[in-house]
Queue: 2 jobs
Job 1
Amino acid sequence: MKRNLKFLVIIGGFLLLYFLPLESFRFRNPFFEALAMLNIYAREHVIFSLIPAFLIAGAIYQFMDQNTFLKYLGAKTNKALAYFVASASGSILTVCSCTILPLFSGIYKKGAGLGPAIAFLYSGPAINALAIILTARILGWQLGLARALGAMLFSVIIGLCMHFIFLSEEKERQANGEFQLGSIENKMNQRNGLQNILYFLSMIGFMVFANWAKPQTGDESLWSMIFQYKWYLAIGFVLLFIYILVYWFKKEEVIPWLESSWNFTQQIMPLLFLGIFFSGLLLGRPGEEGLIPSRFIASLVGGNSLGANFFASIVGAFMYFATCTEVLVLQGLIGSGMGQGPALALLLAGPALSLPNMLVIRSVIGTRKTFIYVTLVIIIATISGMVYGSLVQ
Amino acid sequence: MKIEILGLGCPKCKKLFQNAQQAVKELEIEAEIIKTEDLNKITEYGIIMTPALVIDNEVLNPGKILSVEEIKKAINSLTS
């Protein structure tokens, strides 16, 4: 049996190689596109976006005390505050779903309850620093902003909906015990508040000005003035950053910070570049074609129809996107004719849900609540896609 | 001695697991090291930040990847 299988594999491989349509443009071009995409990213995004983004993520992880925020998600917190913290705290947390899910489960069972837990689950993966930076850089600041604001606003709405739909159950359910946060240590006590703000500002400032987009010709506004001097501004921020590191930081702090940035890089970089490769292979660079024909994409998710937005939400909800790769996939899709509205719909439904994490969520809150949650996410993503699409057109 | 690593199986949890194994090896003690990846069990411990290290039902520094040295110190202070 095993030998037969081997034989079949060899025959299959032989036939595949024998008939490989190397001369065909449709076959060869996608591979060219995939390499071209990697080339564009290496040239345009690595130095001025990815490296600062990883440094910022590392700094947040190392120097921001997550516990000061998370303690507001406990059982005794004022509910309005809990919703607010739940919707915003994703921005200071790390990126992977293995961080989000234990937090979600803990808030639900031993903390502020169903509503805030759902709010956190929804906004967490969408508003972490890396995801927002990449969205703004690669898909444009408008989509980046719409994504961040949309994720926070809708997380509260979805959380409240869930709370009121299951109000009676929530009242019966008593939180059993509080979650524990571990020792609270003040990681930033070496510097005062202003110094800490300047430290983050110097990194963000460099990234913003180094990437300042070229204005349209004939534009005389502040925008184009800044563009003229963007390198002076960017270098200014780098100098500020170096000054801060040298004079305000101890060596024992800088090394763990670089280490956690390096950990993020190791974790996310391979996924990103695989994502870029496959996005290029399947969809091509913006304006070019990959394996999937553009008219196919345009007919499914082009324009801003209800159908297009709904389809994008459904696909986003069930598909699994590794951290931040949703941005790359969307770049390919938009380049192949996807509308801005459906793009936002996918961004709002995508990272918050996937088939594997639905199963984990179901094991925590049960089938009915999971079903309602998924339905709410899809409906709200569809509606906000349509609204955003009609605004930007 | 029972050492438990709580986490959903991300790289950080694996790192902590390796560190715990190394610590046990270096201390030359008898210890059972288990991985707990069931989310509901993790929540039962009252943990929201993973990975977390549990030594004889006592949770240490949730959310941190403790180094081999730190784990050794923790084991010593618990056994002495």
Job 2
Amino acid sequence: MGAVVRIQRRGSPPRRRREAGDPDVVQRDAAVASRIVHGGAVARAALRPVHLVTLQRMAGNRAVAAAIGPVAPVVPVVQRVATQLVAGLDADVPSTYDSGGGHSYADHGAHTTKEAHVTRVNTGVAPSGRVSRVPPGKGSSKFVSDDKHKEAFKQALADITVKNRPKQKVRGAGNVIGVSGAGTTYFGDGSSSAADKVQLDIQSIDDTTIRINSMYPVT
Amino acid sequence: MGADTSLVQLLVDLGAVEEAVRTRLADQEIEGAEAVPTWLLDMLRAVRDGERDGWIDYSRSTDVDDTNVLDFLRGLPELLPVTYENNEESWLFALPDRDLEVTISWEGSCYKVSRLGRTWDEAPAGD
């Protein structure tokens, strides 16, 4: 390994290394520790090992400990959730997306027809026969292809997997994601428009398992 | 405290217990005003005030993960005398005590406050 070269600006005095007992360091550490300790249940639940190490180091400093007051012991819970799919659901096969009781494929899959969606807008009867009415002036949507359906779910699944890693219980997704060219929305007069977003309704059924309640393109 | 104050106050006005609301918000990891979309506050305000103005459009961003807020909404029956019906493309909340219901269309990005059982009537207002 090469030697570390320190560059010192000409004319400036060498900077003194700040010590743990320095007033400004104590003040900064006290503020950080206070935010961690007194941040409420949410912050406490989100504590990561690095926070705990930081907290322990800070608590070891008597000046910081005095500044933040008594601290209840924080017990770390480190448990990574591996998101599982409900039985029968295969992320690569859109025709399995309704496993567990949803209607994403049956009512919004690429195989559904324009006529079926126009009928839904005008009568409230979805392609599967389920009743799901549409507000006046609004449309009914379908994915343009199985590949787009799959792209949407895989994107959602990736997001769900990442966001659930530090949690103790898996959570689903109810947000809207962008999927270019995802689908088509049909209106009551037979007209249509492109839909580049997808509404997710992916729910957890236990601590680790999710199912698709619904998922459909939106404009 | 802070940004969620409006949501808490609206739910308290609708009959919820403040502490229970705050506990649920914490459980759902909903913190700060930016976590609660404006349209949701407008909708709850309309419910509280009994305003029935037909379908109201709202917009949602793909940049915001509002899953926790929606999960909170789904859990309203634990806080208020309200029933929840998930029709997938839309959700229906009925408040019998107020003779009101509110339907949120996720597919159409709009909501409507109306008298019980009148969401799908054509009359846009004063139904």
